[in-house]
């Protein structure tokens, strides 16, 4: 195993053990939601995206570094579609606050306003037979959504938050995939927090590309080991 991969796993394991929570995005607000896939344009080559459907999802809105609420932090939006690949075959999408341009969609962007811009996968995804980036663009219905945990909780409590799920190929504009709508928040003890992992929970034709994949995969595995997160069913 390369040295960098070992170091990433060891660092994530140590941070997660100290926090008793994921190494990154340690604390968040969870809720259920609905993802409606609404295909538009040419097919992608991934049945889950090419067929219209309504899916029940589990979401977690979080602060990436766990900084105090008065400081801007990159924000995470994690989405689990329980049976995207069939019974007991979930899909996890992990999105981070970012820009929307061809370059800035790949860079995390700290925010004080949780709905001030999109959340993207940052790194490229294999989508069918193409490469692209996935993102959730919020439909803003309030002037300001505080990004501290209490503010995220209040925003979910105030009513549904809607995001447009989109994808973009390199150098191209965003293309709509569907609509994600949140439900009210529910409070969970730390041991019941869902362990999201886009490398374990993926579809054959929808998954992160190999770019930096070994490094990120090792970090996710180290974080799970550090907090003794159970591996999801295959």
CATH architecture term: Beta Barrel
The CATH class is: Mainly Beta
Tell me the fraction of residues in β-strands, as a range.
25-35%
| Basic shape | globular
Low-confidence stretches: 230-234
How many domain modules? 1
How far apart lie the N and C ends? 24 Å
Protein name: Phosphodiesterase
GO molecular function, one term: heme binding
InterPro entries: Catalase_sf
Concise description?
The chain has 234 residues and is of the alpha+beta class.
Secondary structure elements and their pairing?
Elements: H1 3-19, E1 28-37, H2 47-50, E2 53-63, E3 75-81, E4 91-97, E5 119-120, E6 125-127, E7 130-139, H3 149-158, E8 162-168, E9 175-186, E10 206-208, H4 213-226
Give descriptors for this structure.
234 residues; alpha+beta; 10 strands; heme binding; Catalase_sf; Phosphodiesterase
Write up this protein.
It contains four helices and ten strands; from the N terminus they run αβαββββββαβββα. The chain has helices spanning 3-19, 47-50, 149-158, 213-226, and strands at residues 28-37, 53-63, 75-81, 91-97, 119-120, 125-127, 130-139, 162-168, 175-186, 206-208. 19% of the residues lie in helices and 31% in strands. α1 runs parallel beside α4. It has a single domain (27-208), classed as Catalase core domain (Catalase HpII,  Chain A, domain 1), CATH 2.40.180.10. A hairpin with a 2-residue loop joins β6 (125-127) and β7 (130-139). The model is unreliable at 230-234 (pLDDT under 50). By secondary structure, the protein is an alpha+beta fold. Strands 1-2-3-4-5-7-8-9 form an eight-stranded antiparallel β-barrel. This is Phosphodiesterase.
């Amino acid at each position: 195993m390369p040295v960098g991969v070992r170091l990433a796993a060891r660092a994530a394991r140590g941070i997660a053990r100290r926090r008793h929570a994921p190494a990154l995005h340690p604390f968040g607000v969870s809720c259920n939601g609905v993802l409606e896939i609404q295909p538009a344009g040419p097919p992608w080559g991934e049945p889950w995206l090419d067929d219209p459907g309504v899916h029940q999802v589990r979401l977690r809105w979080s602060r990436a570094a766990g900084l105090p609420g008065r400081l801007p932090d990159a924000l995470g939006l994690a989405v689990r579609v329980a049976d995207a690949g069939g019974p007991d075959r979930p899909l996890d999408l992990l999105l981070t606050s970012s820009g929307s341009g061809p370059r800035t969609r790949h860079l995390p962007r700290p925010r004080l306003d949780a709905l001030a811009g999109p959340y993207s996968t940052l790194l490229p995804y294999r989508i069918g037979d193409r490469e692209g980036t996935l993102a959730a663009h919020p439909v803003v219905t309030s002037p300001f959504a505080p990004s501290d945990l209490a503010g995220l909780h209040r925003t979910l409590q105030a009513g549904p938050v809607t995001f447009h799920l989109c994808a973009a190929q390199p150098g191209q504009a965003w293309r709509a995939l569907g609509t994600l709508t949140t439900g009210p928040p529910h409070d969970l003890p730390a041991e019941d927090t869902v362990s999201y992992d886009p490398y374990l929970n993926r579809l054959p034709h929808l998954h992160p590309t190999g770019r930096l994949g070994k490094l990120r995969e090792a970090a996710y595995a180290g974080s799970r080991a550090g907090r003794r997160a159970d591996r999801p069913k295959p």
